Amino acid sequence: MRSTDLTAPTVAVLGDPGRIAGLARRLSTAWRVRHTASLDHVQPGELVLLVHPVVAAVARTRRALPAGCALAVLVPGDADTATIADVLLAGADVCVRDGSAAILAGHLVACHRRLSRAPSPGVDRDPVPAGAHRTVVAR
């Protein structure tokens, strides 16, 4: 039986649930995986998983996410490296090729760990918007 603890790590899935069959079985029973039709139902601190989105949807989602959310993107298994780079530049915290629920679960656990710990001093966790370049300022 899966936990109903509301403080448990939660993955809010936007997209085809058939693409992530078996994901819940690959995560600890303390985790919750729920499907949602829109970002209106995503809570602060949740992991958001976009399933096979277009790159523009990744950027829109990043801008609309509640505070403290991580954004994971599942792309088709045959996605080329340029697509993966575009998804990451659009604001995804992680991009995973479709194919293995175990690999996807591992990336989600890693995202949760990064969310759960305080950032290192001097590390900017804000994503660079698509098409922009991070500027380094010497002090």
Descriptive notes:
The chain has helices at residues 23-26, 55-64, 81-89, 101-116; strands at residues 10-14, 32-35, 47-51, 70-75, 94-97. It has 139 residues and is an alpha/beta fold. The longest helix has 16 residues, at 101-116. The chain starts with 9 loop residues before the first strand and ends in a 23-residue tail after the last helix. The model is unreliable at 1-5 and 134-139 (pLDDT under 50).
Care to give the gist of this entry?
This protein has 139 residues and is of the alpha/beta class. It is 28% helix and 17% strand.
Structural class: alpha/beta
The oligomerization state is single chain
Gap from first CA to last CA: 54 Å
Q: Helix and strand succession?
A: EHEEHEHEH
Biggest sheet strand line-up: 2-1-3-4-5
Question: How would a crystallographer describe the biggest sheet?
Answer: 5 strands, parallel
From the alpha-carbon coordinates, what is the Rg to the nearest angstrom? 15 Å
Into which percent range does the helicity of residues fall? 25-40%
